[in-house]
Task: inverse folding
């Protein structure tokens, strides 16, 4: 959701990248910013265009599926994907350990 100009300015002013990970050719950035003075933790994915070499935002539906199904016996996931999914869950709760 797009916020007001003031909200966007606050987010941009406080935005930091705390960690990054690679997943299926994409970069997952672990970002922290403030919204209304409250710290927020999120992730953003980017994919490199082969022709231009530029990075573009990328949706990560499969990674979102991994996070939703962590520990599910009916939908097993790759151990590395599960580890990344758990890392993202912890980050979004503000309890990452790096």
Result:
């Amino acid at each position: 959701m797009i916020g007001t100009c003031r909200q966007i300015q606050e987010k941009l002013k406080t935005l930091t990248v705390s960690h990054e990970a690679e997943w299926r050719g994409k970069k997952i950035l672990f970002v922290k910013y403030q919204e209304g003075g409250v710290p927020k933790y999120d992730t953003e994915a980017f994919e490199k265009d082969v022709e231009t070499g530029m990075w573009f935002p990328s949706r990560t539906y499969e990674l979102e599926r991994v996070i939703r199904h962590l520990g599910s016996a009916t939908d097993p996931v790759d151990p590395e994907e599960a580890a990344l999914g758990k890392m993202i869950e912890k980050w979004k709760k503000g309890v990452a350990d790096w």
